[in-house]
Amino acid sequence: MALDGIVPDWPVPAGIGAFVTTRAGGVSTGCYASLNLGTRVGDDPAAVEENRRRLRLRLPAEPVWLQQVHGSVVVDAATVTGIPEADASFARTAGVICTVQMADCMPVLFATRQGDAVAAAHAGWRGLAGGVLEATLAALSAPPASVLTWLGPAIGPTAFEVGPEVRTAFLATDAGAAIAFQPIGHDKWLADLFTLARRRLTAAGVTAIYGGGLCTHADPARFFSHRRDRVSGRMAATVWIEP
Questions:
Q1: I need a labelling partner for 23 at 20 to 30 A (CA). Which of 31, 51, 94, 187 fits?
Q2: What pLDDT score does 4 carry?
Q3: Tens digits of per-residue pLDDT, 53-69?
Q4: Could you tell me the CATH number of the domain that includes residue 9?
């Protein structure tokens, strides 16, 4: 099976590349079928290695992987060594592949209109509430109005059931975020990560926000989903400046 993926539809300048994997095109089996790229989810290491090799063939260089912890640390992908504990990376160096993994949390890609900087952030609800998008914007050192963003596949607003602590975390700094939560009884809510991300990006001064709406939970044939399957593989979202 050929490597399947999504090329983001956003008006970035020439010289910016981006690619998001789906679950198709790899060699993993069972609940990891087939293009699992995660090394920490219980899959056969040899299968993951082969899957990553296949992804590498689609990219101009080796991806810079992160050990994601649902935080807001941003690293320079061109200078890190090993696998840093972070949830976002940026690059101003051509041929450096900013990469985040996901299986319900939302990947958010960034690029400047000048084409001189890119970034990728891993934004689940904890990361969003903790400011990972704002931290990534700050790391780009560019006026927010000059930054384009793209929201990748994530658990959608009809599937992401949360408790009151999640809603409280967002309303503490943005009362208007209430529109992103629909009550479903028994102190439970359906949360809309796409709306929450758009609100935070807009508040930070970003005017160019694309993507959003692809639900990982609702499409088991195409996407891994941790919330749906509990044990699942990981996909990857990548962005780079062409070498």
A1: 94
A2: 84
A3: 999 999 999 999 999 99
A4: 3.60.140.10
